Amino acid sequence: MMNWLKKIRSRYASPAKLAKIGVLGMNERNIAYINRYNPRSLFPLVDDKLQTKEIVMDAGITAPDLIGVVREQHEVDKLIEHIKGNSGFCIKPAHGSGGKGILVIISTDDEGYRKPNGQAIQLADIERHVSNILAGLFSLGGRADVAIIEGLIQFDECFTGFSYEGVPDTRVIVFKGFPVMAMMRLSTSASNGKANLHQGAVGVGLDIGNGSAVRAVQFDKPITHHPDTGKDLHTLQVPHWEQLLHLAASCYEMSGLGYLGTDIVLDRKNGPMLLELNARPGLSIQVANGEGILPRLKKIEALSSRRKLTIEQRIAFAKEHFSRLE
Fold it and tell me: Where are the transmembrane segments (predicted)?
């Protein structure tokens, strides 16, 4: 698994000892949390980004605008009708994962459509990319897919220097409606501008209490500064933290999933916006925080199920019990 977990396993051989220090492993995550708290019938709602988009819009949750959808190859010729008038936009596969197949255009000019790295591409290149999405080049299992066109997220300037080219996002693990652990993912040159930790993005563990940085890692190893910009990662502070936690916690009622990952971006005009939901959130958030998530999950499981808490009460509980603030 990850280097951090490997080092722990070298010291604590048995699953019982790993559980004692709070590390949630893949098998336990799958059996005790995903399979137990996430009804399989609801998986398509989050595995299909278009279905996710639909339930998000129905719930009135703030998210990037849906510009258009391309479902069939013969519709590719009409792509220009979706993107004209939009100086920036994002095209993604409905069934993609790990950031694969996402094309971001930040502006247009006489030379074409500009990607975040400054490269100009032409309409034919975008049409070819959409065709590849439809053919299943980026989807799980290689099945035929759908291309989603969304409005461009306006990068909040408070994160200038913390991310390289790409827009940083915040992953919050929500368990039974409680935000239990969070991290911010920052793109790098190694990750090709994608907020994907396995490809080399930086993961910054965040304090649930106020959204401040507690630890930063790249390729599972602790770092102090962004590898491309030199920015001190320990100065990272996510604004609108209460609003962001409220958005994450509300996804419990919206999705019906008891254990999920919420991916949230900060738009400079609209504030926190929901980007995606994940019914099988990864374990690397523990590495970014330098702490196991299991004790937090156990504390919530110990609460009486007869008492129904509001979103605000759940957030207050998380802040009281999971914050590192003194």
Answer: none
